[in-house]
Specification:
Helix content is 35%, strand content 21%. By secondary structure, it is an alpha/beta fold. The strands form three sheets. The protein has a ten-stranded mixed sheet, sandwiched between helices. The radius of gyration is 24 Å and the shape is globular. Bound molecules: NADPH dihydro-nicotinamide-adenine-dinucleotide phosphate and ligand LXAUTJHC. This is Glucose-6-phosphate 1-dehydrogenase. One of its GO terms (molecular function) is glucose-6-phosphate dehydrogenase activity.
Length: 506
């Protein structure tokens, strides 16, 4: 890994504690971080270096995939961490920050590289960029990269404004916009499965694929993020970013090279091909939104969204949405992509299901066998793996046909100790690999698509459907798919009592 000073703005926050410090530790343990690095934690509250290192230790103990003990190895790691109290709005503080950064640069023989990680509320992004420049932190040898968290704006105009502020200081190539789903092993694996296997590509089109389903379901409610979520809702929180990104990866053409810009160019073409909604009626015909009310999840009674902390008791924010999306190009004409996400659903899972069309002629029909469609499923999390469902003869039967699955369970074989998304993304940003970060044109096109939905929804509230916590969302979400003669496939291989699943480990 190249050497760098990592400046973490928002170092006392939730993201730093749960994701970033554990990621640093895993990279260190895997010798991807080397010794020529320093991490400066920045936030307003006061902390000594020792207190900060204790905070980092606790976060690693609680959230990292490696065990930590206060031994020599820990001391050697912790020595790289320092803290400085800084208000983003105080430009003088940035001058002092430059001195600290330069001192650590010399101490750890870094050579000028700087990675600025903004784990902050987006309203502060513009000020930080401006003050980094004013404080002289962008001067000198080495690279200067900016890593920013989502949400990147609230809609297209606000995203454009934010982008313009940042672009006054940083070039696009030095801006790394995080979508942590792109750092997930199985999302990255979609491209490999598609482009490194001869047998999928010929089938990857509207001749053979009936529909594609992307489910991102969560059992949690809004937890302590009610204030943020009220403003955002499921469409902006998950739809504009993670879901459309996964859709683009499924739908994109093979790039000519696995170069970041080539891959992102191909995704942009998908975003440009999304069939936009012309009227509010079209939006209503192709989308469903819902909000959870009190219910039961895994035996535990949970409150409804409107009773959550920092949520308006009359809120109309959606905690669930489903949509039928079309990609209007030669490859995908006529193939619906169904996407759905929700909080307080029965299972935590992310899965992408490719449903294939039926065989042209069912020769088993005379024996009353209605064949199940073939499915290719990418399990993204928490289970990681790929399975392929097909029809086979039940052994010993007189030709009874049953669906069986070839099941590659990555998380069972390699263990759940696969790298966390943030580990991968931090590592990539430090290496200058922007493949799994979102480029501005992707972000803008995704907002353009989502804004049409949000504005149609904004016109009235009578189509916000309530669903009980612990269910699969409003019935209208099922109908959306049923209208086309399909159904949502059970996730996590948890069938609904209709399909027998055989599991053959490869
Ligand atoms: N938490 C999560 O799981 C996820 C978070 N994100 C995004 O990451 C970003 C950070 O989120 P999260 O960590 O949850 O937020 P928190 O509210 O937990 O943390 C915010 C941080 O910002 C600091 N801060 C606030 N104002 C200032 C200021 N004026 N000057 C300096 N520091 C300031 C706070 O420290 P202090 O009060 O000491 O100044 C704190 O360290 C947000 O953009 C969020 O949307 C994205 C995905 C998931
Ligand atoms: O970005 C977000 O993602 C999480 C879900 O991420 P996962 O990696 O746990 O699947 C979601 O809970 C949160 O609301 C959203 O902001």
């Amino acid at each position: 890994m190249t050497s760098a000073v990592f400046l973490i703005f928002g170092a006392t926050g939730d993201l730093a504690r749960r994701k970033l410090f554990p990621a640093f530790y895993s990279l260190y343990r895997e010798r991807k971080l080397g010794d020529r690095f320093a991490v400066i934690g920045l936030a307003r509250r006061s902390r000594t270096n020792d207190q900060f290192r204790d905070d980092v230790y606790e976060s690693i103990q609680e959230f990292a995939r490696y065990n930590v003990t206060k031994d020599e190895q820990w001391d050697a790691f912790a020595e790289h961490f320092e803290y400085m109290s800084l208000d983003i709005n105080n430009v003088d503080g940035f001058r002092q920050l430059r001195e600290l950064t330069d001192r650590l640069d010399v101490k750890f023989d870094i050579g000028g590289n700087r990675l600025f990680y903004l784990a902050l509320a987006p309203e502060l992004f513009g000020n930080v960029s401006h003050n980094l420049k004013a404080g002289g932190l962008l001067e000198g040898a080495g690279w200067h990269r900016l890593v920013i968290e989502k949400p990147f704006g609230y809609d297209l105009p606000s995203a454009e404004k934010l982008n313009a502020e940042i672009r006054q200081v940083f070039e696009e190539q030095d801006i790394y916009r995080i979508d942590h789903y792109l750092g997930k092993e199985m999302v990255q694996n979609i491209n490999v499965v598609r482009f490194a296997n001869a047998f999928f590509e010929p089938l990857w089109n509207n001749k053979y694929i009936a529909n594609i389903q992307i489910t991102l379901s969560e059992t949690v409610g809004v937890e302590e993020r009610g204030g943020y979520y009220e403003h955002s809702g499921a469409l902006r929180d998950m739809g504009q970013n993670h879901m459309l990104q996964m859709l683009a990866i499924m739908a994109m053409e093979p790039p000519s090279r696995m170069h970041p810009e080539d891959i992102r160019d191909e995704k942009v073409k998908v975003f440009r091909s999304l069939r936009g909604f012309q009227t509010a009626a079209e939006v209503r015909a192709n989308t469903v939104r819902g909000q959870y009310v009190a219910g039961n999840i895994k035996g535990e009674q949970v409150r409804g969204y409107r009773d959550e902390d920092k949520v308006n008791p009359e809120s109309t924010t959606e905690t669930y949405f489903a949509a039928r999306v079309f990609v209007d190009n030669f490859r995908w004409a006529g193939v619906p992509f169904y996407i759905r996400t929700g909080k307080r659903l029965p299972v935590k899972t992310t899965e992408v299901v490719v449903e294939f069309k039926n065989v042209p002629n069912n020769v088993y029909l005379s024996r009353k066998h209605k064949l199940e469609p073939n499915l290719l499923v990418f399990r993204v999390n928490p289970l990681e793996g790929i399975y392929f469902k097909m029809n086979a003869k039940q052994p010993g039967s007189e030709g009874t046909i049953v669906p069986v699955a070839m099941d590659f369970c990555q998380s069972c074989q390699i263990g759940l100790n696969t790298p966390e998304a943030y580990e991968r993304l931090l590592y990539d940003a430090a290496r200058g690999d922007s493949t799994y970060f979102t480029r501005w044109d992707e972000v803008a096109l995704a907002w353009k698509y989502v804004d049409k939905i949000a504005s149609a929804w904004g016109e009235r509230t009578d189509d916000l459907h309530l669903y009980s916590a612990g269910t699969w969302g409003p019935e209208q979400g099922q109908q959306l798919v049923a209208e086309d003669g399909f159904r949502w496939w059970p996730v996590n291989g948890q069938d609904e009592g209709e399909v027998t699943w055989g599991h053959t480990q490869m």
